Amino acid sequence: MSTTRVFLLASSLARLIEKERGGHRVQQGYFPDRLDRGTYVQLEGNAGHLILVTSGPHRPAEEVADIPLSHAEALLELAPARVECLDIRLNIGTQTAAIRRFISPGPLDMIIMTFEDDEQAQSFQPLPWFGPEVTSEPGYRTRSIAVTGLPAVREMEATNIALDSLLDTLDRRTNGRQQTQHARAEQLIAPQLRSLAPSELSSEDEDDTDELAIEDSVIRELARSLRPPR
User: Fold this and answer.
1) For 161, which of 45, 120, 192, 209 is 20 to 30 Å away at the CA?
2) What is the pLDDT of residues 194-222, one digit of tens each?
């Protein structure tokens, strides 16, 4: 069964993540709980969901039902407690973090990590740009924020170490793409070099014009291969 860990995030770092990755708007409306169950409606883009939350032996379980957009909008207007936030997905190694930037009832930035089981969750080591963990604090749960408002504000500074760590996380995907292109370049250049006779590669009297022609041919072939299809 999946489990989550929740961390606070400095607002300056959250703004940087939003600038780099964008995000999508999410609105949730909560209705009064009844005995061992609760209900809330969620509007995310053009999708509407009605979620039933029931008590379980270890943690609450959610049953999600898709509903028409117009129904979700109507239920959202009727809900006595609401929140609005921006959700941003960010890959951290093999995990995906949800950066949640609350807009209403007030500003608050959090990191929500979801794991397959408790063992995986406990072995996870927060990165330097993560703020304090608030997993066990009820005031930071989304329903509590909708019903009672924001918890006490904690001042957090974005240190140089935190900023460097976040930049490394954001750059990881770009570096991976550059490495792929570099590997593709090597695949294209290697056959060209192998096709040359040994004497052509080692001769001290090789004509400079021939060298430039071969290099130009390889570069043109590489550029054609990396050009996106029309």
Assistant:
1) 120
2) 554 454 444 445 555 555 555 555 555 55
d(CA 61, CA 24): 24
Backbone angles phi, psi at 159, to 5 degrees: -75, 165
Cβ-count burial 183-209 (b if 16+ within 10 Å, e if not): eebeebeeeeeeeeeeeeeeeeeeeee
The pLDDT of 162-190, averaged and rounded, is: 63
Q: Which helix (H) or strand (E) holds 71?
A: helix 69-78
Is residue 95 within 8 A of residue 45, CB to CB? The reply is no
Helix (H) / strand (E) element for 75: namely helix 69-78
